[in-house]
TrEMBL record:
Principal subcellular localization: membrane
UniProt key word Ligase: no
Listed name of the protein: Outer membrane receptor proteins, mostly Fe transport
GO MF term (any one): carbohydrate binding
GO CC entries: cell outer membrane
Domain Outer membrane protein beta-barrel: from-to ranges: 460-772
Record key words, sorted: Cell outer membrane, Membrane, Receptor, Signal
Amino acid sequence: MPKITVTIAILFLFSFSAFSQKTNLSGVLTDGSEKKPIYNSVVALLTPKDSILYKFTRSDKEGKFNLKNVIAGNYILMTAHSQYADYVDAITVEEGEKKMGTIALMSKINALREVIIKTGSIRIKGDTTSYRASDFKVDANANVEELLKKLPGIQVDKNGVIKAMGETVEKVLVDGEEFFGDDPGMAVKNLRADAVKEVQVFDKKSDQAEFTGIDDGDRKKTINLKLKEDKKKGYFGKIDAANGPLTSIDSRYNINSMLSSFKGKRKLSAFLLNGNTGQDGLGWQDSEKFGGREDNVSMSMDDDGNVNYEWTGGNTDDEPYVDTQNGFIKNTNAGLQYSNKWNDKQTLNLAPKYNKQIYTNNNSRITQTQVGETQLNENKSTISNVNRSNFKLNATYDVKLDSVNSIKFTAKTNFYSTDSDEFTNGQTTGDNGLLKNKQQKTFTTKSDKESLFASILYKHKFAKARRTFSVNSSWNTLNTNANNFLKSSNESYDGGVFSSKDDVDQNKIGEKTNQNLALNVAYTEPIGKKFALQFAHQITYNSGESNYLTYDYSDVTGKYDLVVNSLSNEFKQTITTNKPNIKLSYNSKKINYSFGSGFGFTSFDLQDQTLNKEYKRNYTNFFPAANFSYKYKSNSNLRINYQGATKQPTIDQLQPLRNNQDFFNQIIGNPDLKQSFTNSVSIFSSSYSILTESHFYQSISLRTTSNLISYNKDIDPESAKTITKPINTNGNFSGNFYFGYGFKIKKLDLNINLNPSVSYNKSVLSINNIINDSKTLISGFSMYLNKSKEKKYDISLSNNFSNNRNTTSLNDEIKSFNTNNFSLDVGVYFREKWKLSTDYNLFSRQKTVDFQTNLTNQLWNARLQRTFKSDEFTAYIMVRDILNQNIGIKRYVYENTVSEEQNDRLKRYAMIGFTWNFKNKGETAKK
């Protein structure tokens, strides 16, 4: 009887095996340093659930191994050899032959501690930190943004800004490719977290640097989302719709939908977002491109301890500034993403996007400005209405012409239209309370902008290894047409008594074109196994034309037909730079570095066509650069970067045109501006321990700028009228230190992250042509704790404290205030299908000498949901701002100014919603 039972069992197993999907698993083992085959190494497959041995074999004399008749599924691949470190990798075996390729093993003699373990939650390889997504638990239907919040070293603030190891993430890729252009928010807010296999964080080099292997200093903090293989077949997506339960009282609504389809190497995604709760609009990157805020900012901190930037002068094309975290927004956002690859030689990526926003906001600001012994107090309120839209198209086409030649075409377009009106009511008093001036103003804007970009990158590899040649050429242009109307009533007072009045009724027409051509040629020559030289030459040509005409209203004709010569100007600029460059690089397994320098020969040709004046000047600059990286042990590295770079003044800063949009705060350009030069050094170190599950990273950056383009403010303390003009200053310096330490208390299953930070900024300011210093020290400490149990609970606790301290050489007074944000986020599951989640924030702002109000408010949100049909459907009800205390307050301390502003905020509302998360049924069945 036992024999019969055994026989039946064997036949059953045989029949099961015969009907199961089987495949062959093969690969080659080599020595990581000597590249020779490894003989007689054990290669085993283990089951991941209980680590039981499933199959094993040994490598032959050529290092090859072949595991036959492997049933499709998930396994742990492990190698074992007496002279080499173990290699462990989590793999998925699918139907059809699977080739592992070459696996490089590490000698135990050379590196006893460098055991390659790829099954840890985090691993560091070179400059890349990788997180295995499945080890960080989120809700079944959570998006990638919720996943990122769980990853050590990554922070996502309430505005959606992502920071990795203290640096702002500028790009989010999906499987190494751009997803809906260069907007980081699109992928993290709309892709499902359960579709992601791995999250990689690294500093993305330029295409040319990646090809040559020699760092050019052009880096962007980047996140790459590697999708699971089963998510690259068929389709998946979601539809989420929510609405206020009482439309007569609460008319809030959101409709979010996303669909992704995969067929072979073709990927197609589409999304549509529509709502009025302030969801995704144009991000910081877009406002930077079109708002002209890049050169005219001063660092400060908001009420929650976050670093902000305050505009301090210059001409911003009269474009209204929209802060999507304040005010009320109706938003429509739609887009397509198409990518495909043919024969592994041609790759096409297309991403058209459309965005429309209707925005309203009430802003009130109190500003205190110190001028010598006098303090000016400005109280201003502004009502804004903005209707804007833009259409963007990003396209790349990459072709491998043959094994040694490739060419990449990139094109980007952006068509942007704005209609807005602003009504401002303000007054300024002295420190004795006597009125200085009073203003009422209406400003309407109609502007159209067109941004075009195109580039071609040609790459060639010679027969000799690491000998390369590349040519990168680019062209971009920005065209602006604006038609604005300014009506203002401006009253001046002497000793608190009315003295004069100036009424302005003008039509302002502006046309501006700016284009840039660049050509960069690079050749690399190896000089040994580890050294290489790069010879490069860059030519840039920048041309700009700015025509502004201002017309007064005529009572006689009833039209705007009287030209105001003092407010009209036609200006042209041409800036040409030649920059030869030589660089030496060294590349080894643990140490990589490069250093070299370029010489820049720059010529300015500026023409004031209105005044018939020409300004010419020439500059010679030295552009040193150095990069060093050291992988001092497994999962640990150190990077040091230094770069010297120039920055040209913009045409707005150069054009001697007076901007009288604010009668008592006028701005004028300066054609005598020089280019600035910045020296910057950054040091970054990171390490991760797999055994203790702890991570540790530090970042230090120092920056000094000569001939910095800042501003002189001529302030009349009697009339409180200010004329701002860009000038060059020296002695500007900034430094930042960011520290992160995360660890896990295993007995409590508690994750802890600690993040102290310090930033210091010394800026040189000029008040009434007298040079002064402004020093700002911002220090902070944040703590984050998380404990979770799948389908049971998820609890997060955090606290973010910061101190802003500012001093100027104008007086001995120290401006200092503290802010603190305590946050609690709790999710509790009931019977696996029900979940109650709530988050609570307590914002505290210290009262100061200037602002005697100790502002404290609480923000409490809650959501109850129920999932159906294997989490495919979700019904929910949510309430935002239960206590009705959401306020938009910011405080600034910068240079000789202290300011506090308040904005409209969307307060308490409730919504009932339904979500359908769908995926390919055929793929689910196969799985």
